[in-house]
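User: Just a sanity check before I run the rest of the batch. Below are the structure tokens for the first item. I only need the designed sequence back.
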């Protein structure tokens, strides 16, 4: 795929990022579509934080408007809108359709939601490219959105209750963070990975601190500025402009982090803490994919090509290492070697799995998440896949790199990866 001008809303516990991605998709011999956009994202808030009053479809509509504006494409020229979202309980029919219409895309243009847990945002981009490849679309808006702050608690009362108390279920847990097969939290899968891949507590804390410190340095250097679009949020004191991620913890250090107690295993064997795991966040990201001939007609210059993508399945109990096989598969399909990849963006669901993936693949840590990852920035489930793609594109542009890989582990035991190559 090719990316030229992305815009997205990023997550950071309630954060927004605008990502306009104009992309060029190439499969095998043919280059069938271009991804053009001005990469931008907005991230800034924590769970129940600055963006918590905005529903997911509002976040989504904001990035859709922005990507269309940046790519100079009219809403009526769009063929299809595809958005990933995980926590849709209580969000109304087809939230992607709601976001599309709210962004000014006509009723005549179809929109639909896809769900692949943490991989949803990247899968939506892949599906959009496939739609263009098969000739079903010329221009697709794809991305992901999530408002974890607005995810409801649930109660099953369809048949009523004759006597006794009724318990509530947190939809964040039952629909997002608890494994459907083993019936335990994703944090336990991280503990499983730490044990099998021999990742120590110290290694996890070191990676978490590195993620925080890299993000802090990137923020201060303005590396995220191109990705960020301010969002105005209503409040009792009047409109408030949100334009800075609030989730990153500046000044993080190993000494303080090492004092935190394990959260998921409390029998003395645990290593995963709130500090070396990703956060709960809100945000949205969007990209524009366009057929190559249409891009040429409009005079759009793509930012990068999507060279290949891949997805794999594995035992859900060790879902965090899904990126290992997914990255290998995507890189092989691209005809690359791991050594020739300039930068990797691998979602940090947990530091344990992030360390394991880097170890197993033998990657140079300096090439991975060079501006920090989800431990520092947060992890709005449905949008993270698109967010890391945008961050990767801008990081490649900034560093002069050419080849990049974006990848995520996926709850339920899967992994997804995408290889991109800049055109200049």
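Assistant: Here's the designed sequence for the first item:
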């Amino acid at each position: 795929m090719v990316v030229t001008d992305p815009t997205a809303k990023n997550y950071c516990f309630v954060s927004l990022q605008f990502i306009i991605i104009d992309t060029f998709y190439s499969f095998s011999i043919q280059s069938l579509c271009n991804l053009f956009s001005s990469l931008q994202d907005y991230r800034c808030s924590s769970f129940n934080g600055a963006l918590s009053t905005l529903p997911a479809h509002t976040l989504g509509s904001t990035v859709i408007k922005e990507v269309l504006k940046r790519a100079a494409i009219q809403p009526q020229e769009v063929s299809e809108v595809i958005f990933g979202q995980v926590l849709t309980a209580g969000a109304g029919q087809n939230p992607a359709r709601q976001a599309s219409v709210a962004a000014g895309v006509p009723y005549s243009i179809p929109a639909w939601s896809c769900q692949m847990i943490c991989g949803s945002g990247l899968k939506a981009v892949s599906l959009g490219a496939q739609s263009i490849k098969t000739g079903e679309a010329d221009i697709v808006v794809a991305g992901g959105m999530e408002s974890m702050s607005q995810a409801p608690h649930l109660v099953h009362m369809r048949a009523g209750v004759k006597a006794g108390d009724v318990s509530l279920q947190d939809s964040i847990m039952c629909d997002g963070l608890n494994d459907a097969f083993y019936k335990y939290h994703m944090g336990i899968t991280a503990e499983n990975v730490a044990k099998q891949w021999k990742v120590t507590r110290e290694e996890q804390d070191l990676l978490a601190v590195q993620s925080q410190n890299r993000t802090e340095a990137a923020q201060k250097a303005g590396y995220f500025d191109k990705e960020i679009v301010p969002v105005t949020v209503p409040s009792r004191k009047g409109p408030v402009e949100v334009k800075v991620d609030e989730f990153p913890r500046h000044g993080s250090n190993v000494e303080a982090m090492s004092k935190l107690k394990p959260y998921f295993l409390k029998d003395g064997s645990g290593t995963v803490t709130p500090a070396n795991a990703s956060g709960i966040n809100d945000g949205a990201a969007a990209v524009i994919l366009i057929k190559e001939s249409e891009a040429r007609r409009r005079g759009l210059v793509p930012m990068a090509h999507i060279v290949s993508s891949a997805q794999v399945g594995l035992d859900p109990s060790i879902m965090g290492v899904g990126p290992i096989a997914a990255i290998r598969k995507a890189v092989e399909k691209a005809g690359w070697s791991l050594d020739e990849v300039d930068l990797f963006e691998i979602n940090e669901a947990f530091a344990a799995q992030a360390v394991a993936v880097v170890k197993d693949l033998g990657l140079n840590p300096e090439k991975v998440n060079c501006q920090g990852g989800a431990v520092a920035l947060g992890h709005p489930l449905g949008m993270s896949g698109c967010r890391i793609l945008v961050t990767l594109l801008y990081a490649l542009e900034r560093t002069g790199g050419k080849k990049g890989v974006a990848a995520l582990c996926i709850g339920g035991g899967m992994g997804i990866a995408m290889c991109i190559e800049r055109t200049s």
